[in-house]
């Protein structure tokens, strides 16, 4: 909840404007004071943006008072998996190398990223041609056994989210 309270006698706002609000409660208090309370539910898109409260009395020149807060919206990861942009998924053959990119948006930052093939977790194994690096998975020297559905899973303190599956077919 966001509260804005300007209680100076000489600066009682004549109007208070809120954009994208859900609910506003305005109160007149004693001694020419006023209180406005804005309630809203932030979205992921609000993360990092500023919420500003401004009070002004047009009858008093240069009377504006303003305060702002940077929003820190915390949410579980939003995850999208895609095959490397330079690859043609309809023309992958045995012996080829492929890579996948796990695109993650999260606040707070992700503390775990895991890769899966057909629901089974993959581990880094360069000898077997499975290379995990940051937010990418590289499969080297594909065989017909490399075909299947690949996913990634990202976790932070708000929760964990699995990506969309990407199907790898070997011609």
UniProtKB/TrEMBL annotation:
Mind telling me what this protein is named?
Answer: Myelin-associated glycoprotein
| Classification via InterPro entries | Ig-like_dom, Ig-like_dom_sf, Ig-like_fold, Ig_I-set, Ig_sub, Ig_sub2
The top of its lineage is: Eukaryota, Metazoa, Ecdysozoa, Arthropoda, Hexapoda
The cross-references to Pfam families, in alphabetical order and at most eight, read: I-set
Q: Taking every annotated instance into account, which residue ranges of this chain make up the domain Ig-like?
A: 77-167
**PANTHER family, from UniProt?**
SIDESTEP IV, ISOFORM C, SIDESTEP PROTEIN
């Amino acid at each position: 909840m966001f509260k804005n309270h300007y209680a100076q006698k000489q600066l009682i706002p004549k109007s208070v404007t809120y954009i994208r609000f859900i609910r506003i409660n305005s109160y007149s208090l004693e001694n020419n004071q006023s209180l406005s309370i804005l309630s809203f539910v932030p979205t992921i898109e609000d993360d990092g943006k500023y919420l500003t409260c401004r009070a002004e009395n047009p009858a008093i020149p240069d009377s504006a008072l303003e305060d702002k807060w940077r929003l820190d919206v915390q949410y579980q990861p939003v995850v999208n998996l895609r095959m490397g942009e330079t690859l043609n998924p309809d023309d992958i053959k045995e012996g080829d190398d492929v890579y996948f990119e796990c695109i993650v948006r999260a606040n707070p930052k992700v503390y775990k990223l895991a890769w899966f093939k057909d629901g089974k977790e993959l581990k880094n194994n360069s000898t077997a041609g499975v290379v995990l690096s940051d937010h990418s998975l590289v499969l080297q020297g594909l065989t017909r056994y490399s075909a299947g559905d690949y996913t990634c899973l990202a976790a932070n303190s708000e929760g964990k989210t699995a990506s969309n599956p990407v199907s790898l077919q070997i011609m």
